Amino acid sequence: MSRELILGRIRAANAGARAAGPVRRDYLRAHADRTPDESVGLLAENLADYRALVHRTDAAGVAGVVARLLAERGSRTVLVPDGLPAEWLAATGVQQLEDRAESTARELDAVGSVVTGCALAIAETGTIVLDGGTAQGRRRITLIPDHHICVIRVPEQVVSSVPEALERLDAARPLTWISGPSATSDIELDRVEGVHGPRTLDVVLVGE
């Protein structure tokens, strides 16, 4: 009985919403008129506020930065999603593992690091969005390993705001929104990292 009552109320609310017409979307698309460089700078600032580690380089320097980060981490294995540019890992001697559908959570947890690209990044919120596209792999490979290196092409993959991001994203794809490394806190506000995702997030901003 309670189930039918709740569903009935939902149907009634939805009917009222349809009668009211389309949802108004006259809110601000962004909170400032920024240049591409200013958006990239704001993204880097907000990522750092979330305790992500931000690195800047050009296309020729990506391999060197990734190799250094893997070495500093002491990773012996790196998970490589399908479509990841081979040149990003050209300078490392770390064993490369393919993203396999049959990999178990235990196997993924034993991986040293994962390197991916992204769909885009949002400057105002310091958020990286993955959609399972080229160079990103399946959602679980960025949630289980303890170290994630994410490469972002700037400024073309950076948008200023969430509304701008939604215009470019496909809602039918498996979207993962990342704002810094995984963290939570208990009732006493003691911060614990690595609970439901990577403990360490390295972000490589690749400019021209």
Automatic annotation (TrEMBL):
Membrane-traversing stretches: none
Domain LUD: start-end pairs: 99-206
Protein name per Swiss-Prot or TrEMBL: Lactate utilization protein C
